[in-house]
Amino acid sequence: MTKPGELESKDRAQWSSERAFIFSMAAAAVGLGNLWRFPYMVGENGGAAFILAYLIALIVIVLPIMMLEVSAGRLAQGGAVHTFAQVNRFGKFFGWCVVALTTGITSYYLVITGWTLGYAVDAWRGDVRDFDVFTGGYNSLWYFFAVAVLVVALLIKGVKAIEQFSNFLMPLLLVTIVALVVVASRMPGWGEAKEFLLEADFSQLTDTRLWMFAIGQAFYSVAVGQGYLTTYGSYIPRETHVPRACLIVGGTEACIAIMAGWMIFPFVFSYDLDPGEGSQLAFSTLPAVFQDMSWGMPLAIIFFSLFFVAAFSSCIAGMKVVIAAVAEEFGLQERTALFSVFGLMIVLGTPSALSFTPVELTVAGMPFLDFMDQFGGTNVVIASGVIGAALFCWFVPRERVRDALGVRTTWWEWRIYIVGRALPFIVVAWLLWTLV
Length: 436
Prior knowledge:
It contains 18 helices and 2 strands. By secondary structure, the protein is mainly α. Strands 1-2 form a two-stranded antiparallel ribbon. A hairpin with a 2-residue loop joins strand 1 (362-363) and strand 2 (366-367).
């Protein structure tokens, strides 16, 4: 039995190599956070100014916390609840809060992934419909159920299946996105998109709301504060250099997110569509674009198939976080935990699915799914990441984290601890300033 803060290690299955961890972690985080959420957040929040704020937040705040969470998972060799429970008495409660957050996010991720599957099927059939037409019936609900079943089918095969899927996904993802950016560069709206994405209005950087969304997106895009990093970190082999691996994953995430903007906005401006469309941006604008192109259907097949595979990887990661916590904390077999979490996701995801059906379930005047994303995807994710970093940095000895980082120098260790210890005070000061 270890003392609080020591983070006991135990035997656990491992990724086959550092490269396998990088591919798996990148595939887990890259999905909807980069291809779906990043472009619509850019469109709603001023284009280039938002991108600049996002990159600053990623480099200064998020990467150190990412390294810290991966290291903590590596030390504890367990899921989010197991890891935080070893920090102090409050840790176990907070660990369950993290799992609850990931459960909520994954529940509506499954719905959006269902949209991508539905659009991919329609593209292969040569009939890509407008979003309002697609959701005119109960497609959101049926495809949500289908995706949930597919995720369970893959997770039954365990860590090795995730690794193999990720090794296949990442090269395909990068090649396809680059190809679509090349196609987009030939559109008449390329110049307008370039201006929107590169020419920042620096006065917007004084807007606290823009910074809140940019920081939230940076947390969201690399899965900080959601249990992904601690859970995936618990499977990494001892020779892994954590800072190097996290820098590669974080850089990959940022590049793919920005390329997603270059992939989507030239089409948006070419067809005089609204860049601030919101969460439906890719689904309500691009079908019209593809329908109008002479070669639109092959492009639609590539785009929506890519969209589905990337989104599916995020669902796998989210489910894995919850399953690991349930199995470890309740002493269940992995398969029993898997089917229990599947049932929970069906219950929690159904309201989000129903918000885009004739039922039109809403909260606070917005679709239930949009409410979940605005609330959980920004505010709660930031709070979770900040509190988690503070718990690790104030209660876990620095030497333990340095060992888990797999580095000999103390540079990364000190940077991580400065960020982790200072963030709670900065956030409180920021909140007081905005209230006054």
